[in-house]
Protein backbone atom coordinates (compact mmCIF):
# COMPACT_ATOMS: atom_id res chain seq x y z
CA UNK A 1 0.00 0.00 0.00
CA UNK A 2 1.33 3.42 -0.86
CA UNK A 3 2.02 5.82 2.04
CA UNK A 4 -0.46 8.46 0.80
CA UNK A 5 -3.27 5.96 0.48
CA UNK A 6 -3.32 4.91 4.15
CA UNK A 7 -4.45 8.32 5.57
CA UNK A 8 -7.11 8.56 2.87
CA UNK A 9 -8.36 5.08 3.69
CA UNK A 10 -8.49 5.95 7.41
CA UNK A 11 -10.50 9.09 6.67
CA UNK A 12 -12.99 7.10 4.61
CA UNK A 13 -13.38 4.49 7.33
CA UNK A 14 -13.87 7.15 10.01
CA UNK A 15 -17.03 8.31 8.29
CA UNK A 16 -18.22 11.72 7.21
CA UNK A 17 -17.32 14.68 9.40
CA UNK A 18 -19.99 15.86 11.80
CA UNK A 19 -22.24 18.36 10.13
CA UNK A 20 -22.90 21.54 12.05
CA UNK A 21 -26.56 22.55 11.95
CA UNK A 22 -27.39 25.90 10.46
CA UNK A 23 -27.60 28.68 13.03
CA UNK A 24 -31.13 29.61 14.03
CA UNK A 25 -32.79 32.27 11.97
CA UNK A 26 -34.88 35.07 13.40
CA UNK A 27 -38.01 33.29 12.19
CA UNK A 28 -37.04 29.92 13.68
CA UNK A 29 -36.24 31.61 17.00
CA UNK A 30 -39.66 33.33 17.06
CA UNK A 31 -41.43 30.10 16.18
CA UNK A 32 -39.65 27.98 18.78
CA UNK A 33 -40.06 30.60 21.52
CA UNK A 34 -43.78 31.00 20.75
CA UNK A 35 -44.26 27.24 21.02
CA UNK A 36 -42.30 27.19 24.26
CA UNK A 37 -44.41 30.00 25.75
CA UNK A 38 -47.66 28.34 24.65
CA UNK A 39 -46.57 25.03 26.21
CA UNK A 40 -45.43 26.69 29.45
CA UNK A 41 -48.74 28.56 29.73
CA UNK A 42 -50.72 25.38 29.12
CA UNK A 43 -48.75 23.49 31.78
CA UNK A 44 -49.06 26.35 34.26
CA UNK A 45 -52.83 26.47 33.93
CA UNK A 46 -53.23 22.66 33.86
CA UNK A 47 -51.36 21.98 37.09
CA UNK A 48 -53.02 22.41 40.43
CA UNK A 49 -52.14 26.03 41.09
CA UNK A 50 -50.65 26.88 44.43
CA UNK A 51 -51.86 30.40 43.74
CA UNK A 52 -55.54 30.88 42.98
CA UNK A 53 -54.69 33.78 40.66
CA UNK A 54 -53.40 31.39 37.99
CA UNK A 55 -57.01 30.48 37.18
CA UNK A 56 -57.69 34.09 36.20
CA UNK A 57 -54.72 34.58 33.90
CA UNK A 58 -55.67 35.08 30.26
CA UNK A 59 -55.31 32.03 28.05
CA UNK A 60 -52.08 32.20 26.16
CA UNK A 61 -52.05 30.55 22.76
CA UNK A 62 -49.55 32.27 20.47
CA UNK A 63 -49.66 32.11 16.70
CA UNK A 64 -46.91 34.37 15.40
CA UNK A 65 -48.67 34.58 12.04
CA UNK A 66 -51.75 36.22 13.55
CA UNK A 67 -51.50 40.01 13.84
CA UNK A 68 -53.51 39.98 17.08
CA UNK A 69 -50.70 38.12 18.83
CA UNK A 70 -48.86 41.38 19.56
CA UNK A 71 -51.82 42.83 21.48
CA UNK A 72 -52.39 39.47 23.19
CA UNK A 73 -48.81 39.44 24.47
CA UNK A 74 -49.03 43.06 25.68
CA UNK A 75 -52.25 42.25 27.55
CA UNK A 76 -50.76 39.15 29.13
CA UNK A 77 -47.67 40.93 30.39
CA UNK A 78 -49.77 43.82 31.72
CA UNK A 79 -52.30 41.59 33.50
CA UNK A 80 -52.27 42.35 37.23
CA UNK A 81 -52.94 38.76 38.30
CA UNK A 82 -50.24 36.80 40.06
CA UNK A 83 -47.79 39.51 40.98
CA UNK A 84 -44.72 37.94 42.53
CA UNK A 85 -45.52 34.33 41.56
CA UNK A 86 -42.22 32.92 40.27
CA UNK A 87 -43.63 30.71 37.49
CA UNK A 88 -45.87 33.47 36.18
CA UNK A 89 -43.03 36.01 36.33
CA UNK A 90 -40.80 33.63 34.33
CA UNK A 91 -43.55 33.18 31.75
CA UNK A 92 -44.07 36.93 31.48
CA UNK A 93 -40.32 37.36 30.95
CA UNK A 94 -40.43 34.90 28.04
CA UNK A 95 -43.43 36.72 26.57
CA UNK A 96 -41.57 40.05 26.83
CA UNK A 97 -38.55 38.51 25.12
CA UNK A 98 -40.69 37.14 22.28
CA UNK A 99 -42.47 40.48 21.88
CA UNK A 100 -39.15 42.30 21.65
CA UNK A 101 -37.80 39.82 19.11
CA UNK A 102 -40.95 40.10 16.99
CA UNK A 103 -41.31 43.85 17.23
CA UNK A 104 -37.67 44.90 16.98
CA UNK A 105 -35.09 42.40 15.82
CA UNK A 106 -37.11 40.23 13.44
CA UNK A 107 -39.78 42.65 12.26
CA UNK A 108 -38.89 42.18 8.57
CA UNK A 109 -38.84 38.38 8.80
CA UNK A 110 -42.42 38.10 10.01
CA UNK A 111 -45.48 37.80 7.81
CA UNK A 112 -48.93 38.02 9.37
CA UNK A 113 -51.35 35.72 7.59
CA UNK A 114 -54.46 36.63 9.59
CA UNK A 115 -55.90 39.08 12.09
CA UNK A 116 -58.45 36.75 13.69
CA UNK A 117 -58.26 37.60 17.39
CA UNK A 118 -60.80 34.91 18.31
CA UNK A 119 -58.45 32.27 16.93
CA UNK A 120 -56.01 33.15 19.72
CA UNK A 121 -58.70 32.63 22.35
CA UNK A 122 -60.11 29.39 20.99
CA UNK A 123 -57.46 27.72 18.84
CA UNK A 124 -58.55 25.05 16.41
CA UNK A 125 -56.93 21.75 17.38
CA UNK A 126 -54.40 20.61 14.80
CA UNK A 127 -55.08 17.18 13.38
CA UNK A 128 -52.67 15.28 11.25
CA UNK A 129 -53.89 12.95 8.54
CA UNK A 130 -51.36 10.43 7.37
CA UNK A 131 -50.96 10.16 3.58
CA UNK A 132 -53.07 7.38 2.14
CA UNK A 133 -55.38 7.32 5.19
CA UNK A 134 -57.87 9.89 3.94
CA UNK A 135 -61.44 8.71 3.43
UniProtKB/TrEMBL annotation:
It comes from the Eukaryota. It holds the Pfam family CYTL1. One of its GO terms (biological process) is cartilage homeostasis. InterPro entries: CYTL1 (IPR029253). Keywords: Signal. Residues 1-21 form the signal peptide. This is Cytokine like 1. It comes from Panthera leo. The lineage of its organism: Eukaryota, Metazoa, Chordata, Craniata, Vertebrata.
Amino acid sequence: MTPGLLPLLLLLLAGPPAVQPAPPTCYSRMLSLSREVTGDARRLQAMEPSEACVRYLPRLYLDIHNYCVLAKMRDFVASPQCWKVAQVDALKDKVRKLYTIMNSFCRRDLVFLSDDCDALEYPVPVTTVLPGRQR
